[in-house]
Amino acid sequence: MFKKxxxxxxxxxxxxxxxxxxxxxxxxxPLHPWGAITTTMTNLTDIPSxxxxxxxxxxxxxxxxx
Length: 66
Hints:
By secondary structure, the protein is an all-alpha fold. Helix content is 68%, strand content 0%.
């Protein structure tokens, strides 16, 4: 079942995983000491972390459905 969603050779999979990971890093900012990296990611994306996470999950789910 997991293989259906894990496609590391697919460009569409990577285009969904990257926002997911960036959103998770921004969301857990108080829990880790990567303040400069989190600030940079927040300034680059200018999108709230929950939207990045939801978009990434949506893309992975859509990719698995096709």
